[in-house]
Write a structure and sequence with these properties.
This protein is mostly helical. 75% of the residues lie in helices and 0% in strands. The chain has helices at residues 11-14, 16-37, 55-73, 83-102, 104-108, 113-133, 137-143, 146-158, 160-164, 171-185, 188-196, 198-220, 231-254, 262-266, 274-313, 320-359, 364-372. Helix 3 (55-73) runs antiparallel to helix 4, helix 10 runs parallel beside helix 13 and helix 11 crosses helix 12. The longest helix is centred in the C-terminal third of the chain and has 40 residues, at 274-313. The chain is globular and about 55 Å long. It starts with 10 loop residues before the first helix and ends with a helix.
Length: 373
């Protein structure tokens, strides 16, 4: 059996395997479904129980799962303590995609801003994070038919245009793309346009998914420096993404004017006022979104510590095993302190959030909470 050459899977282009084989496949099939349904009078089921199981989207997710299972079937995993967690992460990522695109979340998100932020968190953060953690490239390639690897995947990966796309895997570009995509679609004019126009809505979701896959692949790249980004660069990527998320979430939480009117045009669900809807969506982005970034950077630090210990353990030591154990204990202590610092950062974010809300006594969200109390 002919295999894809190693040159076709260089580090600069391997970033596009999870994005291309999972994200693009699902989004392209979703576009086909949108085109087929264009112009038809869609039924109006109860949005709270509407599972829109479209053959293209669900089929694309099932195809990705089938390829992964086929690629894992003959792989020896004895002694690999992380194999089961990688598999759970991959299927968890597919489940997040399914919930975002096929569950009632997809229907309700057009009528409530706060639910729309849940959908976007699934597409932009949770699904990409889990899919990248699973490192699915090799399994997906092994699961493909030989003709697909030989005549489609390998030529595409060798294409000069695809090679040029490796620039998106640069940490600075990946971070700007990730943060910039979110900010662009939160501009009221484009946000409302995407809510009301289905093709643009599809482009919106695709851009969030792909930018998330690229960002988290760069952040969680299992390759050590210099093949992957250094720990300092990854920490800076985390800081930029977290601060960008906090600034946008806090602005949405404490503003007074209504920004997004498309939800009222389509019919707002529930009893939330537009102001409260946008405020709770901002708080969700602020707190839950920041938690996702903290989890990801803690995984980066944990993986970096393991790689450092493995690298040092392979070196011939002149100081003996006792000195090596002492060195490893010191490194673990330093890494533990770094992880605790990140946890404290997250706790501080949450504390500042609630303290600011309490001080901001005339805000609609606080007024509503006080009424409940």
């Amino acid at each position: 059996m002919r295999r894809v050459s190693a040159s076709a899977l260089r580090p600069g282009r391997s970033i596009f395997l999870p994005a291309g084989l999972v994200g693009t496949a699902v989004s392209v099939l979703a576009a086909i479904d949108m085109i087929l349904r264009h112009g038809r009078a869609a039924p109006q089921p109860d949005p709270w129980s509407s599972w829109q199981i479209t053959p293209t989207v669900t089929g694309g997710i099932l195809i990705a799962a089938a390829l992964y299972i086929a690629g894992q079937r003959d792989t020896a995993t004895t002694g690999d303590r992380f194999a089961i967690w990688r598999r759970l992460a991959f299927f968890g990522g597919l489940a997040a995609l399914f919930l975002a695109l096929q569950s009632p979340i997809e229907t309700i998100s057009d009528h409530l801003f706060v639910v729309h932020q849940i959908e976007h968190m699934l597409l932009r953060t949770i699904a990409p994070l889990l899919l990248v953690l699973s490192v699915p490239q090799a399994a997906l390639l092994r699961g493909m038919p030989d003709w697909l690897r030989r005549y489609v995947v390998a030529p595409v990966l060798r294409n000069p245009l695809v090679r040029g796309l490796g620039i998106f895997g640069h940490p600075a570009v990946a971070t700007i793309l990730f943060v910039g995509t979110t900010y662009f679609w939160m501009i009221p004019r484009y946000h409302d346009l995407a809510i009301l126009d289905e093709p643009i809505h599809y482009i919106w979701h695709t851009s969030l998914l792909l930018s998330g896959l690229i960002f988290f692949w760069c952040l969680l790249d299992p390759r050590p420096y210099p093949h992957g980004a250094s720990l300092g660069v990854r920490l800076f990527m985390f800081w930029v993404a977290a601060i960008g998320n906090i600034l946008l979430g806090s602005y949405l939480s404490f503003k007074h004017q209504i920004l997004y009117h498309a939800y009222d045009e389509l019919g707002r669900l529930g009893s939330l006022s537009p102001a409260l809807d946008e405020s709770y969506g901002g708080l969700e982005m602020w707190i839950l979104g920041s938690m996702m970034f903290v989890i990801s950077i803690m995984l980066v630090i944990y993986r970096w510590a393991l790689q450092e210990e493995r690298g040092l353990s392979k070196r011939p030591g002149a100081d003996g095993p006792i000195m090596a154990r002492e060195f490893f204990a010191q490194k673990r202590s330093a890494n533990r302190k770094m992880a605790i610092g990140l946890v404290c950062f997250m706790v501080t974010v949450v504390a500042v959030t609630f303290a600011t809300v309490l001080v901001y006594h005339d805000h609609p969200a606080v007024t509503d909470l006080a009424r409940l109390w």
